[in-house]
Amino acid sequence: MKTGVLMNIYNEIEWIDLAIQAVKDEFDEIVIVEGAYQIAIQSGANPRSNDGTLEVLNKYRDQKNITIIHANEQDHCFQNNKALEVLKAKGVEWVLLVDGDEIWEKNNLKIIKNYMVSGEAKGIYQYWVYFYNFVNDFDQFIEARMRRVYKITPGCSFLNGNENLQWPDHGKSVDTGQPVSYVSEIPQFCRGFHYTEIKTKNRWLLKKNYLQKRDNNPRFKSWHVTEDGVQHDEMHMIKPFTKKHPKSVQEHELYKLWGQDRAAFKKKLFG
User: Fold this and answer.
1) Which of 137, 55, 134 shows the shortest CA–CA distance to 101?
2) Which of 31, 180, 222, 234 has the smallest number of CB atoms closer than 10 Å to its CB?
3) Phi, psi torsion values for 214, nearest 5 degrees
4) What is the CATH number of the domain that holds 103?
């Protein structure tokens, strides 16, 4: 069975190198699609990453199992479909979605690949995966459960959302959250580390503006950044993190700064 990773990224300088390093030797094919969506460009984003992400990607252009493409599709599902077609052409049968700020440990990736194999035999088309979503620093997180692992068929495509895959050629529709035989989940002990809110203030505000424009949802208007970090409507769900971060994260400059000088850490990101 040929396995792959799909990464849809834009201005991910804080974590993109570690995210790629974590998966590049564990899967047969890695397809990275880089670029701002049209809807984000309308909110002020540059078409190409301009924070150093492109320079990081250049390090991997000669690696045989990594394909890097640049696109500026209308939205995330169109951008994902661009990469999905490349994965199909390369014969990938199962794929893991990985954000540019997600770090995976090797043992958990092996578990995911085992579930891909068993899912193929059981008629599974999608797995939900659990994450630690870190908020503002490294010792607090929000529980997250996301669609991340998918069977690839010739006619599958993303629809109305970056994680919503459908398989019309196999008679399988987008997962709506209702129990169906072809959707399962990977146990909670296998988790990804998602550093989605340990980023610079400007990067996070750009995300807010993009979501507000995409969804036209008034709740995003209340999202803001203070000197202590991002503030939004899920802050009440924060839990203390008592386990260890991946070794690569512990060696990251932001993690070291957080351990040495919390005030300097906050100023660097949110000042």
Assistant:
1) 134
2) 222
3) -70, -45
4) 3.90.550.10
CA dist 55 and 70 (Å) reads 14
**Average pLDDT, integer, range 78-86:** 96
Whole-number pLDDT of residue 221? 84
The number of domains in the chain is: 2
Q: Which residues contact 220 (CB under 8 A, 6 or more apart)?
A: 208, 211, 212
Same domain membership, residue 16 and residue 35: yes
pLDDT in tens, 225-240: 999 999 998 889 999 9
Alpha helices (H) in 24-165, listed in sequence order:
38-41, 53-58, 76-89, 106-122
Extract the tokens encoding 258.
Answer: 């957080």
Tokens, residue 151: 């069977």
38-74 pLDDT per residue, tens = 988 987 889 999 999 999 999 999 999 999 999 999 9
For the record, the structure tokens of 60 come out as 């991997």
Burial 128-165 (b: 16+ CB within 10 A, else e): bbbbbbbbbbbebbbebebbbbbbbbeebbbeeebbbb
Q: Which amino acid is at 162?
A: N
Cα separation, 101 vs 195, in Å, equals: 5
pLDDT of residue 143: 96
Residues 117 and 181 in one domain: yes
